[in-house]
Design a protein that fits this description.
Keywords: Amino-acid biosynthesis, Aromatic amino acid biosynthesis, Cytoplasm, Transferase. The chain has 450 residues and is of the alpha/beta class. The protein folds into two domains: 222 residues, UDP-n-acetylglucosamine1-carboxyvinyl-transferase, Chain (Alpha-beta prism); 214 residues, UDP-n-acetylglucosamine1-carboxyvinyl-transferase, Chain. The protein has twelve helices and 24 strands. Strands 22-23-1-24 form a four-stranded mixed sheet. A hairpin with an 8-residue loop joins β8 and β9. The radius of gyration is 21 Å and the shape is globular. The protein binds shikimate-3-phosphate and phosphoenolpyruvate (PEP).
Length: 450
């Protein structure tokens, strides 16, 4: 039998990955799940903290980091730039380089992480040196053009090595002049976050003016919150239409990484789809991570949601409610989760506002429709979304498209369906290598096949 991992870019898997499995046979759950789960640290916060601390003056200690492929390649990229990074369990200790990386020439590999690729390209542009930056096969296809344009406007010299608007590139870094720059946030918020993260090391104040809108605003708020936490001076209106950053750099510090709200959602969805109960014990409603609002979508579908000092708890209803249309633009990483819950609802669910997820780890709109077709559930593809109709998924072996969220969201579907096999389960390692371990701890049957 052909190895289902063949299509995946296994070079982008790290020593922290779940390795060696061809297939995961998941579910069905024998009844309602009933569990407390503690989820690993946030990918978004971990990689921001790593890049900001590496640029800062002085030492930082980051605790509760996510040990996943995205974080591993971010750390390795920083090491290739000469930053001493020590990792002990989920604690990282690193000596910041005060705006100039020790290696002024390096080849930098970013793995499959959009955060590392976008944030580090911008950070490097603010230094002096010559760098070749590349990513995984998929990362080298994902858009970078708007970031290149903005960095060039601020003085960077970027030479794309294959296509105009993607990695790999050669960057002749000679610092950023600063000034006003107009940016689009419609394709990815990470372009805006990248420019902002680099901005405290520009020679003059940087003002970013958004010409259209930002998908997933909250990630830019997380960026600004964390920049401030490391001593940067930034000002922005709530709508983020204009954001300005003063020169002055970052200062190293101790920083606790919060839990990953996106990962938590698969476990909340497990409660929803089985009519069970799941509490994520280390997540709070007050987090800036947008995916925490996925519990509001679950509430709309009939779930009971409570939050307290003990975490956030979701209880699923006897029957999930459908029959609505919803924009997932501000929490689009959960589109797959909603789409694979939707067959179990009592009416169709239309998702809008997520055209940009075609440029994520896979073309996620296309993948939803293809995957649901394989299990015999009707779905209609739209340019910027999808409509999923109620249906009973039939047994199938399903590709995971080298996309962690596809594998994790399909596992939720598998809790209510017989005979679901997910190929290349190791792809979950991009953000949650321990995903199947958590499912097992919840009592869900998981057979990982070598
Ligand atoms: O800044 C971040 O940490 C992220 C921003 C979002 O990306 P886009 O804005 O590119 O959609 C999100 O999908 C990704 O998982 C993490
Ligand atoms: C889009 C995602 O990741 P990235 O940070 O690579 O953009 C994601 O995690 O769903």
């Amino acid at each position: 039998m052909a190895d289902a991992r063949q299509g995946a870019d296994l070079e982008a898997r790290s020593p922290w990955a779940l390795g060696g499995y061809r297939l995961a046979r998941v579910g069905p759950a024998s009844g309602p799940v009933d569990a407390d789960v503690r989820v690993p640290g946030s990918k978004s916060v971990t990689n921001r903290a790593l890049v900001i601390a590496a640029m800062a003056k002085g030492e930082s200690v980051l605790s509760g980091i996510l040990r996943s492929d995205d974080a591993y390649w971010c750390i390795e990229a920083l090491r290739s730039l000469g930053v001493p990074v020590e990792v002990e369990g989920d604690v990282v200790r690193l000596a910041g380089c005060n705006g100039q990386f020790p290696q002024s020439e390096a080849r930098v590999y970013t793995g499959a992480g959009g955060t590392t690729a976008r944030f580090l390209t911008a950070a490097l542009a603010a230094t002096t040196g010559e760098y070749e930056i590349s990513g995984s096969r998929r990362m080298n296809e994902r858009p970078m053009g708007e970031l290149f344009r903005a960095l060039r406007a601020l003085g960077a010299d970027i030479e794309p090595l294959e296509r105009p608007d993607t990695l790999p590139i050669r960057l002749k870094a000679r610092g950023l002049a600063g000034g006003a720059v107009e940016m689009s946030g419609a394709q990815s918020s990470q372009f805006v976050s990248g420019v902002l993260i680099a901005a405290p090391y520009a020679r003059a104040p940087v003002t970013v003016r958004i010409v259209d809108h930002i998908v997933q605003h909250a990630y830019v708020h997380i960026t600004l919150d964390m920049m401030r936490a490391f001593g940067a001076q930034c000002a922005a209106a709530d709508d983020l239409a204009v954001i300005s950053v003063e020169p002055g750099g970052y200062r190293g510090r101790r920083y606790d990484i919060e839990a990953d709200a996106s990962t938590a959602c698969y476990f909340f969805a497990a409660a929803a789809v089985t009519g069970g109960r799941v509490r994520v014990t280390n997540l709070a409603r007050g987090t800036r991570q947008p995916d925490v609002h996925f519990v509001d979508v679950l509430a709309k579908m009939g779930c009971e949601v409570t939050s307290s000092d003990a975490g956030i708890e979701v209880r699923g209803p006897a029957t999930l409610r459908g029959g609505f249309s919803i924009s997932m633009k501000e929490m689009s990483d959960q589109t797959l989760t909603l789409a694979f819950l939707a067959p179990f609802a009592d009416g169709p669910i239309e998702v809008t506002g997520v055209g940009h997820i075609r440029h994520h780890e896979s073309d996620r709109i296309r993948v939803i429709v293809e995957s649901l077709a394989r299990v015999g559930v009707r779905a209609e593809e739209r340019e910027d979304g999808v409509v999923v109709y109620p249906g009973a998924p039939r047994p199938a072996r399903l590709p995971s498209y080298d996309d962690h969220r596809v594998a994790m969201a399909l596992s939720v579907l598998a809790l209510r369906a017989d005979g679901i096999e997910i190929e290349d389960p190791g792809c979950v390692s991009k953000t949650c290598p321990t995903f199947f371990h958590h499912l097992r701890e919840m009592g869900v049957p998981v057979d990982l096949v070598p």
